[in-house]
Amino acid sequence: MANVAESAVPNREEEEDPHPAAEDEDTGAQVAPIVRLEEVSVITGEENEEIILNLKAKLYRFDKEGSQWKERGVGTVKLLKDKVNGKVRLVMRQNKTLKICANHLVLPAFSVQEHHGNDKSCVWHAADFADGELKDETFCIRFPSVENCKAFKDKIEEITESLAQRGGESEEANAAADLLENLSVEGKDSEEKPKAKEEAPLSEGEKKDKDQ
User: Fold this and answer.
1) What is the dihedral of CA 172, 176, 182, 185, to 10 degrees?
2) What are the beta bridge partners of residue 82?
3) C-alpha to C-alpha distance for 167 and 114, rounded to whole angstroms
4) How do residues 80-123 score in pLDDT, each as one tens digit?
């Protein structure tokens, strides 16, 4: 029985392969890809704009019919400045899908306020174009940190103050232009007024006849 038991036990040394194949052995074979994918450039409409703010956040919009906040998406909110005309717009896209959650201009009257004492969230009103048509929307945005929320509000305030200043300067320039135009019109009117007819000089004989 002992011999049977001993013979039933496999000899590990006999079973082991003296030349085991390496698992990561490089065979040198090259496999060509079945489908070649070409790189495609994605046009986002932001190519001619400068990114002046880029933060991760979660966006909500207020549903007037249901009187409640509804999530618009989680993604990246950007403040983009046009390189040509200097206009600034707020754009937010969802992660992965890149669907637009918010898309509107930052105007001089644009105001961002803290949301009910939450120092990580703020709210604002805007005429938004995210859905392809202008809609009066109320947004609430929540940031992961107080610092990011403050940076967002500070940058918005900086932009609106700059726009207001530029607006005041343009109004002064327009007023000055109107004044110059009025002055030029007045001068032109005076030039167009008929001048008194100059009489021709009289001869000696004509002078005597006139005196008589």
Assistant:
1) -140
2) 49
3) 26
4) 999 999 999 999 999 989 999 999 999 999 999 998 889 999 99
What counts of helices (H) and strands (E) characterise the chain? Answer: 4, 7
d(C-alpha 68, C-alpha 130), whole Å: 19
**Of 106, 107, 102, which Cα lies nearest the Cα of 73?**
102
Whether residue 77 contacts residue 152, with contact meaning beta carbons closer than 8 Å, is answered with: yes
Nearest Cα neighbor of 54 from 84, 75, 83, 82 is: 75
For 41, 168, 193, the CA distances from 124, given in Å and listed in that order, are 34, 24, 58
What mean pLDDT do residues 160-188 have?
66
String of DSSP letters for 88-141: EEEEEEETTT--EEEEEE--TT---EEETTEEEEEEEEEEE-TTSS-EEEEEEE
Residue 46 and residue 50: Cα distance in Å, rounded?
Answer: 8
